[in-house]
Design brief:
This protein is mainly alpha-helical. It is built from 10 helices and no strands.
Amino acid sequence: MNVIGLIVYIFPVLFALTIHEFSHGYIAYLRGDDTAKMAGRLSLNPMRHLDIFGTIIFPLMLILLRSPFVFGWAKPVPINPYNFKDYKKDTALTAAAGPIANFLSAAVFSIIFNILYKILHFPLDNIITCIIFFTIFVNIILGLFNLIPIPPLDGSKVIGGFMSDKMYFTFQKVEKKGMFILLAIILLSNIFGLNIISRIILIPSLFLLHIITGLSSSEIVNILTSIL
């Protein structure tokens, strides 16, 4: 990744992570839990949500490994589900808020992209066009990734809302180990060239990019290659 690519990379990633975590905290607040607000996390300031390992170190590791799938995460917004009126339902709604916010952001930025590219005729290699395009891409990636039903990802909490109480609490016990399992799968699959997560997430992400931007597969690949 060159200097220009790094500049194009930083804003979309910080934006996507921030809007994702803010949305978790905001919906939790609406459902009766003010833990995030009391912790100062109901903020759109990216610095409030940065995680040194997840936002900086881990993405750099993936870049150095030349992974086709580069992602990171922010500090999880603190949630106390015991403040909710309906423990499982409100936890599921709070979890779903993050990916939904990312998909809505992708939709909004796709409108901006289409205005710039198709109406104002900004070239695809223009830095503003690239930033807008990559913002769409990162939000789609983050939204889809978090829907994977492996604890502690949001997808596991969403499906938890439909489980029996016994199954739900058993599923929760896996959450602490889930992230280590997930990271191990990602790193090992990249080292051995399997790219399991990449195949699960990247293919639908590229398809959605094609649908909402109208760009061909080759144009999408060219832009992403120039950035990454």
